[in-house]
Amino acid sequence: MRKVLLIVLVLVVLLPIIIVVARSATPVVDVPSPVAILGQATPITVRVTDPRGIRKLQAFVEQNGVRYPVWQVEQPAPSHTKEGTYNFTAGVKATPQLKDGKAKLIVEATSDDLLRKKGHWEREVTVATQPPSVTADSDQHYLYLGMADLATLNISGAWTEAGIRVGDQTFRAWPMPGGKPGYFSLFAFAWNMPPDTAPIAYASNGPGNEATSPLVFQFPKKEQPKYSVRDLQINDAFMHKVVDELDPHGSGDYVTRFVKINNDMRKANNQTLFDLRTKTADHFLWSQPFQRQSRAEAEAHFADTRNYIYNGKKIDQQTHLGYDLAVTQHVGVEASNDGRVIYAAPLGIYGNCIVVDHGYGLMTLYGHLSQINVHEDDMVKRGQVMGISGMTGMAGGDHIHFGMLLDGIQIDPKEWWDPHWIKDHIAKRVDLPGFQG
């Protein structure tokens, strides 16, 4: 009897401990986009997961054996949240004791259970108290609406972001091919960029630590492209075709749904195209000038303005950012140059769509296909048939919507079809392997 009582007593004492230990957890700490450089005030995002919730979050910078606290939050509301994302800044502005050189960024999370277990994340970083330096080439850059160009750069010091900035648009810097010293940036002057916008080279290692350098450029007003404006007559057959294909389960009248597709879906599709920039290769995938679809006639040009007219009334206006190329019905759609397929699926207004990456943020787009014969990650060759033309998406007839993008910005393809332009603006400034222009 005494043994039984002793066992019961032990269980009474140990069971709560066992339960506490069994139910305790160690927080999982992650920094989704780890930083490599701490500048003046570098933004940092932390994601923490713990089934028992979080009691405390702390961040430190450790340098030369000294640990400096840079951020702390006690029982982030609500403290029982199993997963949370938190933002803070770290750098010289908040911790002036930091010196140029190596350091360690540390994040710790304490669980909200009785054992107060700690999760830990750390990463070696470089402290940069001063901005990097950047200088752009002295070439004369002739800029045109919708066009692209290439600038070479010299960048020194620690930096996290660099390239060419045109207004509110940025274009990345890349190391020169072949291991040569320096950097380059393919950049665009967008079709709707104010003509008085001055492109600049920039390099930064965080907010407050940025260096800039002007480009030598001209913007010849007399030679700028003249974009056309045309009325596009919309009949019931075309409107019903578009709405039934792209918004089959929507509500409301056809005109309202058509206009919503033409606006909201267009914006969402273009955002998808912009986001593909993250999939680009860090080297040239092409060595020859880009080629236009064989025997094709252009039914519409880049940056044409379209007034959509229905029953004699203007119901919408949009800008067409590509070329509509027509040959015959169901013609084979040819790759404009060597590259890698990074998208091959329906894409709203573009219908069945293929996007090919050519490296360094340069991509070509082929829309309205009736059939796609390639898959994502396929390597394609210049002139290779990738699918069949059609009239999917917002197409009123069988044709190919051909477009080009540079770091997500839609640009005019026509210069890229010109071997002399490729030679003068690309091949002469960087090493374009195998170019025969």
Question: What does it look like?
Answer:
- This protein has helices at 2-23, 236-246, 254-275, 419-427; strands spanning 28-30, 37-38, 42-49, 54-63, 66-74, 83-90, 101-111, 118-127, 133-136, 141-142, 147-156, 161-166, 169-172, 174-175, 183-189, 200-204, 210-214, 217-218, 229-234, 297-300, 304-310, 313-320, 323-326, 332-334, 339-346, 352-357, 362-369, 371-372, 379-380, 385-388, 400-406, 409-411.
- It has 437 residues and is mostly beta strands.
- The termini are far apart.
- Strands 20, 23, 25, 26, 27, 29, 31 and 32 form an eight-stranded antiparallel beta sheet that branches.
- Helix 2 crosses helix 3 (254-275).
Furnish the topology, listing elements before pairings.
Layout lengths: L1 H22 L4 E3 L6 E2 L3 E8 L4 E10 L2 E9 L8 E8 L10 E11 L6 E10 L5 E4 L4 E2 L4 E10 L4 E6 L2 E4 L1 E2 L7 E7 L10 E5 L5 E5 L2 E2 L10 E6 L1 H11 L7 H22 L21 E4 L3 E7 L2 E8 L2 E4 L5 E3 L4 E8 L5 E6 L4 E8 L1 E2 L6 E2 L4 E4 L11 E7 L2 E3 L7 H9 L10
Parallel strand pairs: 2-8, 10-18, 19-21
Antiparallel strand pairs: 1-3, 3-6, 4-5, 4-7, 7-8, 9-11, 11-15, 12-13, 12-16, 14-15, 16-17, 20-23, 21-22, 23-31, 24-30, 25-26, 25-29, 26-27, 27-31, 28-30, 31-32
Supply the key terms:
single chain, 437 residues, mainly beta, eight-stranded antiparallel β-sheet, five-stranded mixed β-sheet
Structural class: mainly beta
Helix content: 10-25%
Radius of gyration: 28 Å
Mean pLDDT: 92
Straight-line distance between termini = 99 Å
Low-pLDDT runs of 5+ residues are: 17-22
The helix tally amounts to 4
How many strands appear in the DSSP assignment? 32
The profile of the biggest β sheet is: 8 strands, antiparallel
**Global morphology:** globular
Q: Which percent range describes the beta-strand content?
A: 35-45%
